[in-house]
């Protein structure tokens, strides 16, 4: 017959076993998730024309979307950018970690960089955004012969978003076979919203695009989408 002490011990061991199993599967899930979004986030790197909804396929032939590069001492991400013939990278993060490194690395390789600091936190975006535009200097025989041009312009969040959207459209129309790349941190919410606006989707179409990579309807992005849609 089991004593109260043994019962208590058995219960403790049982709970400990359950906890261990849960912890194991939880850690495995985290490890798997981290693995999926590590490096250059290749899982999310895709041409817009390759997505299921191809209603704007001709316009999106040279538009790539995805996540941020990770600077681990290799140049894998840069090789991917170059091999995809991307000439301008649009960084949609409000985060500043590695932003300057990314910008300077791209400029040294003759690739433009534009930063629109979108956020998913809070209720509505800050009233003003500082949009950074970095244009690479000219290169001749592999050497830089003119200085890079880096400018920052402060404008309202809605005006800033429209400004960057128009820049994207201009790049697409002028760059011939060259492409543009849009990224936030994981290539989901902020990138999804900007691509939806880039497509000028209406009705539920933009929601489909917005959630293509499992994005979430964050209030600041929903607010911006509504305001920008009104003005466009």
Write a brief structural summary.
The chain is an alpha/beta fold and 232 residues long. 42% of the residues lie in helices and 20% in strands.
Strand order of the largest sheet: 1-2-9-3-4-5-8
> What is the third-level CATH name, the topology?
Protein-Tyrosine Phosphatase, Chain A
Ends: how far apart?
78 Å
Assembly classification: single chain
Give the % helix: 40-55%
Structural description of this entry:
- There is one protein chain.
- This protein is α/β, with parallel strands linked by helices and 232 residues long.
- The chain starts with a helix and ends with a helix.
- Helices cover 42% and strands 20% of the residues.
- Residues 12-43 and 49-54 have low confidence and may be disordered.
- It has a seven-stranded mixed sheet with strand order 1-2-9-3-4-5-8, with helices on both faces.
- It has a single domain (40-231), classed as Protein-Tyrosine Phosphatase, Chain A, CATH 3.90.190.10.
- Helix 4 (157-174) crosses helix 7 (219-231) and helix 5 runs parallel beside helix 7.
- The longest helix is centred in the N-terminal third of the chain and has 33 residues, at 4-36.
């Amino acid at each position: 017959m089991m004593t109260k002490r043994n019962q208590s011990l058995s219960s403790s061991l049982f709970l400990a076993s359950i906890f261990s199993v849960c912890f194991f599967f939880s850690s495995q899930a985290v490890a798997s998730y981290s693995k999926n979004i590590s490096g250059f986030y290749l899982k999310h790197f895709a041409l817009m024309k390759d997505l299921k909804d191809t209603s704007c396929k001709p316009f999106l032939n040279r538009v790539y979307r995805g996540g941020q590069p990770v600077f681990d001492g290799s140049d894998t991400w840069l090789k991917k950018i170059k091999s995809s013939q991307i000439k301008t990278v649009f960084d949609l993060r409000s985060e500043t970690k590695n932003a300057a490194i990314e910008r300077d690395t791209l400029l040294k390789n003759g690739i433009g960089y534009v930063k629109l600091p979108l956020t998913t936190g809070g209720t509505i975006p800050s009233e003003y955004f500082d949009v950074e535009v970095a244009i690479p200097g000219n290169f001749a025989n592999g050497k830089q012969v003119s200085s890079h041009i880096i400018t920052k312009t402060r404008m309202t969040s809605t005006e800033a978003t429209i400004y960057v959207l128009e820049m994207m459209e201009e790049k697409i129309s002028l760059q011939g076979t060259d492409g543009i790349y849009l990224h936030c941190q994981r290539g989901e919410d902020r990138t999804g919203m900007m691509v939806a606006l880039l497509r000028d989707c209406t009705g539920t179409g933009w929601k489909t695009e917005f959630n293509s990579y499992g994005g979430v309807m964050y209030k600041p992005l929903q607010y911006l989408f509504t305001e920008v849609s009104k003005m466009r």
